[in-house]
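User: I'm new to structure prediction. If I give you an amino acid sequence, what do you actually give back? Let's try with this one:
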Amino acid sequence: MTGKTYDSAADAVADIGRGATIAVGGFGLCGIPDALIEAIAGTDADELEVFSNNCGVDGYGLGILLAAGRIRRVTASYVGENKEFARQYLAGELEVELTPQGTLAERLRAGGTGIPAFFTPAGVGSPIADGGMPWRYNADGSVSIESPPKETRAFGNKRYVLEEAINADFALVHAEIGDTAGNLVFDKTAMNFNPLAAMAGKITIAQVEKLVEPGEIDPAQVHLPGVFVQRVVHTGPQDKRIEKRTVSSGVRA
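Assistant: Good question. You get back a string of structure tokens that encode the predicted 3D arrangement of the chain. For your 253 residues, that looks like this:
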């Protein structure tokens, strides 16, 4: 370790322990911090609480920690590509808070900017605001924990629901380029949730494909300043996965 840079992903995540809360960047399989997730899988950390747009797929990304039974609770927006996620949730093995995608993004951003809560129209008139969404089931299929009702308020002639910010013990993100001071550049759609997750973490760990020295990144091109990043590890080019491959037969009618 030198300053913010760590020699390996394993070193960078070594102090993530039992019960830690973790914000994880990426969208689907795009821009996910896969090397950091795999490094956590090599530790004894369990009972983790994760904030992420989705929970990987079976056998990759957060799906690795999920299959190993390391995750206790997930706050997410979309979980449709992970069969093990659905199994654990319906079997009462996993607590799940589903939230609108834009609300999740703003909760992370708010946590990073010191805003404790905000009002949004998303979810008003639904179980998101009224409560009653199953967070955890019992093994027999009955509901063990359900979401509580949230405060709503009228502004003008429209109602809004109060959503609380997210702050996590750690944040894991993936960037295309990072410098040793923690300034990051993300590649296209890998921008999704990575800067927001990074802002919400008390200790943010960035895996970068290319590591450079301070000053080598044009300040105007920095997507996330190093003030939000505490640890940087060079992991090299990322293997680009396709979440759901769809191909044609090549035969025209």
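You can read the tokens as a compact description of the fold. Here is one thing that stands out. The CA atoms of residues 89 and 95 lie 7 Å apart.
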